[in-house]
Automatic annotation (TrEMBL):
Residues 3-93 form the DUF1330 domain. InterPro entries: Dimeric_a/b-barrel (IPR011008), DUF1330 (IPR010753). Pfam families: DUF1330 (PF07045). PANTHER family: BLR0684 PROTEIN, PTHR41521. It comes from marine metagenome. This is DUF1330 domain-containing protein.
């Protein structure tokens, strides 16, 4: 059953390092068996205000182990610092609906 890596991001400093991080992490997500389902800001916030000025990233993976291998891998750890100081990131793993 698929699992999802979900990130809610408030970008406060879009810079070249963050752009590089986004490109490199996208390649790694593919390498570890993942694919993007959602990537970017909302088209329109319909209710509440918690999504204002936020981007949502959802990547589908085959299992939790693949997500942990991606996040814990040396290749990801080598680029992780590129997003330091660029925003606030809330990240979690979620099961698919059954």
């Amino acid at each position: 059953m698929s699992v999802y890596l979900v990130s809610v991001c408030e970008i406060t400093n879009m810079n070249d390092s963050l752009k590089s991080y986004a490109q490199k992490s996208a390649e790694l997500i593919t390498k570890y068996g993942g694919s993007y389902v959602v990537r970017g800001p909302s088209i329109e916030v319909l209710e509440g205000d918690q999504l204002n000025n936020k981007s949502l990233i959802i990547a589908e993976f085959p299992d939790v182990g693949s997500i942990k291998a991606f996040l814990g891998g040396d290749d990801y750890q080598a680029i992780r610092h590129l997003r330091d100081g660029t925003g606030i990131y809330d990240i979690g793993i979620f099961n698919a609906a059954q």
